[in-house]
Amino acid sequence: MSNKSPKYWAIVPAAGTGKRFSADIPKQFHHLNGSLVAQHTLSRLLSIPVIETIVCPCDTSSGYWSKIPAIENPRVRLVTGGDQRAHSVINGLVSIHDIAHRNDWVLVHDMARPCIAPASIGRLITQVGNHPVGGILASAINDTLKVVSPQGDIVSTVNRAEYRAAQTPQMFRYGLLFDAIQSMLDSKKIPTDEASAIEYAGKQAIVVEGRQDNIKITRREDLVIAEAIMKNQEAE
Hints:
With 236 residues, the protein is α/β, with parallel strands linked by helices. The protein has one domain: Spore Coat Polysaccharide Biosynthesis Protein SpsA, Chain A, CATH 3.90.550. Helices cover 28% and strands 23% of the residues. Strands 5-4-1-6-10-7-11 form a 7-stranded mixed sheet, with helices on both faces. A two-stranded antiparallel ribbon has the order 2-3. Helix 2 (85-95) crosses helix 4 (174-186) and helix 4 (174-186) packs across helix 5 (194-200). The termini are far apart. The model has no long low-confidence stretch (mean pLDDT 94).
């Protein structure tokens, strides 16, 4: 591992169509609290000065990007996305291959998480900064968790204290993340998130406590919840 101080890069996949969102317009381009979702997300990442470049693997031909002022920032770069999230992340990693080092940190964040608090990103960077592998933001589970059969029958109740809800950003070393995701794809497996690829590679990441309001916009009603969260955050 190099002794050179690592740099920080961000990858924000935005090539998905959001099937569960059920709308003609991708969810990242919907209005939320005075701006579009993508604008909120990119603005919050841009507020972290140590991030060198924010790469957005996406449909670069989409006219909706012209409505996102953040892409005019020289730290934001649009690149072609992939069929699935993992392919988009690989495309993002390849796009900075000539300027990033294996020891650098990459923060992968969902474009559909516009409520991420900059302080949470800072905490992730601070707590993971000396770790050899990386870590993720995650939140405690407040609901009772049930194991359910394919037929809809309750099988058992699990100890929620042993579980966490994974969030983003997820922060890993550039070289390790690239190798881990590519290894899964080469094996015809699709990681559900970056941490699952790291697990597949036999490495152990750490969890950093995230805020409960770092929600992911998945369905249309989530926009209403996100707007309420943002108004509350503004009042903090």
